[in-house]
């Protein structure tokens, strides 16, 4: 009821609220008062309940070259409540619980109408500083200077404005500190295993990098019935963590002796893994993953975000003669409006467990602590609460 009263008072007007602003690359975020404009046509203004920190936020927080730009409001993994809607929005209404997504699902273009793709061509994915339709920001600081958006979400703010093609209405019964994970981590990892790779029961999977995305891949592979799930990391502590998520065997890539990582995996598996997932964002590791997957039917799925301009090199002879598949997977191949509700139902039905992802929770004013925890490798996911 209080939310409805607030919404009727604030709809159509700018809202003054707190945001954690990234003003300089790699510098602590500054919590400051900002102004959030009302939504334009096809837009939704959302009060963020909680948000979690993803490694992609860290990458673009540190980055000093384009597409980095400052000052910016980062954050793209969140859940919130619709405060007000712009014209031509009938999919959601004030008070609805929603997940904002960094990938658009317009429902109109050939890609969104097809089951084969989750890459909208009407509003394509970009690391863009503005709203997708209008090339303008909905954020200003108290001096009237524009603050840049991030991945069309910008959840490190008490209020944000998101295009309706980037908003998914969800069941309000799901706890917010679990719901937010569907905005990136869980959908990306579980989706890559279940949808992009379509892992077969009884198969062997190798996961390169056991961060939160790699662990979510392990969850997805286990849901699909994979028999062996090999985790690869340079941190031996990740094996004990990985076991909780379904990893059955571990390789420390620093301890391969005079053999390459792919040689070790080929020997372990008798010819290579059926599916390899690269979850770090290193060209050399993509090539190692490709070399590690089985000839004839092996699939390598690239999920890690590499530095801008990074290149991959493959032997044309090997590509022709190995018969393997190499593919990228953005947001796990998940179509936000149709697939997210299915994933969330799997969580609500206790088929998909998420509790082990959330290792830390902090108040909004302690957001820089979340950055420290993730950089130091001390957390899987840290949830940031806006009002606790």
Automatic annotation (TrEMBL):
Stored InterPro entries: ADH-like_C, ADH-like_N, ADH_Zn_CS, GroES-like_sf, NAD(P)-bd_dom_sf
Record-annotated Alcohol dehydrogenase-like N-terminal domain positions: 41-171
Catalytic activity: a primary alcohol + NAD(+) = an aldehyde + NADH + H(+); a secondary alcohol + NAD(+) = a ketone + NADH + H(+)
Top-level taxon of the source organism: Eukaryota
EC number: 1.1.1.1
Membership in a protein family: Belongs to the zinc-containing alcohol dehydrogenase family. Class-III subfamily.
Oligomer and partners: Homodimer.
Name used for this protein in its record: alcohol dehydrogenase
Organism: Theobroma cacao
Organism ancestry: Eukaryota, Viridiplantae, Streptophyta, Embryophyta, Tracheophyta
Gene behind this protein: LOC18591658
